Amino acid sequence: MERLDISQIKMGNLPFCKISLSKNFNNKHKSVWTQIKESLKQYQGSDFDEETEASILVEWTAFLQFLRTLGEYKRTYDFEVKYTNEAKKFVSDLVNSSKPLDDTEEIKIDKASIKDLKALGFELNLKDYQVKNLKKLLSRRHGANFSVQGSGKTAVTIAMHLLLRNNKKTNVNSLIVVSPKNAFLAWDEGFAETLNINCPMRQEGLTELKGTYDQIKALLLTSGKRNFIVNYEKLINITNLIGSFVYQPYNNVHVVLDESHKIKTEEADRSNAAKEISTLPFIRKDILTGTPLPNKPEDINSQYKFLFPFSVPPSNDKYWVRTTKKELNLPKPNRIFQNIKMSKPQKELYGAVMTKFLNKYSNISKVNKDSLRDVRKSIIRLIMISSNPILLTHRMIENGEFYFGDDISSKIHMQLQEEENSGGSPKIKWACNKARELAKEGKKTIIWSYFRNNIEHIGKYYLRDLNAVYIHGGIETGEVGIENTRKDNIKRFKDKDSDCMVLVANYASCAEGISLQHACHNAIYLDRSFQADLYLQSEDRICRLGNEDQKNIYILQSEIPRGVRNIELTIKNNLERKIDNMSKFLNDPDLKQMAIDESEGEMPIDENINMQDIKSMLDDLIKTR
Asked: How far apart are CA 272 and CA 592, in angstroms?
């Protein structure tokens, strides 16, 4: 009888499924083989790494998703499927890893176990809600901690790892953390704050996987290091090295994806890298994020499949825990939506750009994949005008789109230059004046903006009198004591005795992994990120466990002239929908209240915005005046 042979091979130290045909299979089932290959390519999302007339090499995740369909083909077309013993064991182990733990496998946590943490070198006294989360997570084979920012997810994860290290059933001896680079500091601080100096895990430390491919290979395979941290972008090119490390027989690895919403976009490079390592024989997998659904309910899918590659996300909370702000007894932040009058040249520029935009895209059906980039660019321009319009005229001049021979264009740009020289746009002037007012009261302020030039101008020039520091993607991480590095700027701002009264930052560099709740109680938003996750996390830099002072959130919004389409109100509607979707999934009343509180506000557009987002925004924009 015709037969498919299923075996396992390793390629780059990662396990792959090899499907080979018996000699006569193609003679009788050539069209079936073509259908099987096409289906597997769809599940894998890419071409096969190896393909001949009689065999293919496919990712195990794709093959296992196809298993049910393969059974239907087998019954319909009457052929055999034969597994090697190694492949059969591999499939069985992977499928079992997606099942809940039974009572004999669960790691029981009681008061005595928590006391044992002290003996293991864990110094922090866990809160009741953290102990509750720890117990629930350890009753699952793999788990997700979706607690709000600042609730101690890192501390709970380190405590869990210590217990796994000292449990005879698991014998974990290694930790791999995948995290955004801007959250590395939080993990360094987590080790220092939770582990005493005699704890073996603290002495081992957390080694960053950086440098060339060969340097990372040496760190993983020959350095003797046990604990590693790597950013998502670097992971893309070293999944095979992670596989080599995990497959070494003496390595029992616990892997953690921090800020796991970074893999929300299925088939993106970061998501594919996470998928590639998801079938490695880790002892345990955990994902951490306070914003698991930043855009839409489907954002959870790729995160769940990292934990359990062969099952569908359940509709209940069987695999995750969440601590809300209400459970932390944090005071509700005071959100102040501050209307700012636009200047005359700002209004003229906004009207001109909006008119051109609507003339081109008033019909939503005109938006397609080819025009998507131009739509993004247009929306960013509208937001830029609302924040600081001279940013746009400078850019247009650089791109040859703005000509001084045009009297109107020349006049607008000259007037905007006068604004810049006299303290900046209306929003910037308001933010700087408010920061000075708060500084007189001895209060520090963080100012958020998406645009790098805003950050540098405020930090370098407009607020030199307040010894402002700034952080964006161009600022090196560096070390404390090295001037104008990320670590040194944060330390200066957090130091209550320093004369640094303002931190100016963008979302990508500062929204994650930094705790400012003790030093700062006031935040000003010149413009907000289109991404709900970064906006929520930026608020949580100051609204965190450990400080109950009243927090004030000032959201600046330009007053758009009556009768003109309102980009700020448009994007606000989009943000509100996203926060509301997340509140429903997490059953979190704080997020629900935030969606209700949300009023007119503007934010830059997400570079990852999809067609559905664009069309919903355009629909809002066309209806909104």
From this structure: 32
| Token output for 617 | 């925004």
Compute the distance between CA of residue 153 and CA of residue 134 in angstroms, rounded to an integer.
10
Alpha carbon 615 to chain centroid, angstroms: 24
Residue 429 pairs with which residues in a beta bridge?
none
Residue 150: closest CA among 539, 555, 578, 504: 539
Phi (first) and psi of residue 201, to 5 degrees: -65, -40
Q: Rg of the chain's alpha carbons, rounded to an integer? A: 27
Number of helices (H) and strands (E) in the chain: give both, helices first: 25, 18
Most confident of 350-364, 365-379, 448-462, 514-528: 448-462
DSSP 524-560: EESS--S-HHHHHHHHTTTS-TT--S--EEEEEEEEP
pLDDT tens for 58-75 read 988 778 768 878 888 999
Burial 466-481 (b: 16+ CB within 10 A, else e): bebbbbbeebeeeeee
Torsion angle of C-alpha atoms 88, 89, 92, 93, degrees rounded to 10: -150
The structure's pTM equals 0.75
